[in-house]
Amino acid sequence: MKRVQFSRYGGPEEMSLAEYSLPALEPRRVRVRVKAAAINPLDWKIRRGVMKFVTGNRFPQGMGSDFAGIVDEVGTAVTDVRVGDEVFGTVEIKRQGAFAEVVDADARLVAPKPAALSFSEAACLPIPFATAWAAIVGAARAGSESRIFIHGCSGAVGSSAVQLAQACGAQVSGACGEASLASVELAGVRPAFTYPDKTSFAAYGPYDAVFDTLGTLDVAEGLAMLKSGGRFIDINPTPGRMLRGFISGRYRMVFATGGFRNLREIARLACEGKIHVSIGLEAPFTDALTVIRNAELGRRPAGRIVLIM
Ligand SMILES: NC(=O)c1ccc[n+]([C@@H]2O[C@H](COP(=O)([O-])OP(=O)(O)OC[C@H]3O[C@@H](n4cnc5c(N)ncnc54)[C@H](OP(=O)(O)O)[C@@H]3O)[C@@H](O)[C@H]2O)c1
């Protein structure tokens, strides 16, 4: 079996496509033959060692979180997943390894793949939509009266947040790069601003929630855009921002893990056509190293990138 792995933290040059074997399956895990795996920025952040306080210093480590595939084996304590099921899901930060022919995952982090979705589409759902769920449904408590501003509304998390907020009936405006303006307007972001247009998007407030998907909006400026009782939501932690999250009721740091229990609900919304993913590239697994490196360097098409096993 082959997987993308690395033997020390570092840049793209540390990745290799290598033979590996998995240990005996633990009781609460499932073994999945991967059909598609979606690339997220988290993948190279982990490889660079940004989360080494969680991922530790045992190597080699696999890469990749989000996958869809067919269940090959189930642990003895798993009751709701069967061999042969088509599933999609993710893995814990300290047990990466979805860029592989076979991956082991906690059974609670997989859900049935809806027949209406391709393996590639399903693989694109977990991290972006779980993060957006934690932000929009959880922290922002979006509803039909809500006005939500999404800073970075064109990326994987941003576009997921736009759709979830719309599905909640909220009015969504946002900011993105110049090149993304037309596509976010088409997605119903009204109005859509560019990042330098701060005065205009601040004046369009106040908002019930400001969701900064990129960690580039000044927090004080974001807080000033809120209605009384509104929330600034962040997903890019730094030590200072984490601390702020503990002491401020108006500022929330959220994580994908906060939305993972909603994978079935996310799949249902996708089946109902209320949310969708835009795939820019489906690449063969044999090209994984080049494709990941290019994505990391920003050389990529619009839309998600998926590896096909
Ligand atoms: N806390 C958590 O659990 C959590 C979970 C998920 C992600 N994150 C973090 O949140 C951040 C955003 O994640 P993401 O998955 O949304 O990232 P992403 O899809 O890479 O989007 C980020 C930005 O990249 C630009 N972009 C999108 N497609 C592009 C393309 N084809 N070419 C060039 N630029 C493109 C867009 O900028 P423009 O606005 O210029 O169009 C977009 O706003 C990352 O730092 C990630 O690590 C945190």
UniProtKB/TrEMBL annotation:
An annotated Gene Ontology molecular function: oxidoreductase activity
Pfam families assigned to the protein according to its UniProt record, in alphabetical order: ADH_N, ADH_zinc_N_2
TM segment ranges: none
Domain Enoyl reductase (ER): 10-307
InterPro entries reported for this sequence: ADH-like_N (IPR013154), ER (IPR020843), GroES-like_sf (IPR011032), NAD(P)-bd_dom_sf (IPR036291), YIM1/Zinc_Alcohol_DH_Fams (IPR050700)
Highest taxon listed in the record's lineage: Bacteria
Coiled coil: none
Protein name: NADP-dependent oxidoreductase
Natural source organism: Candidatus Pantoea gossypiicola
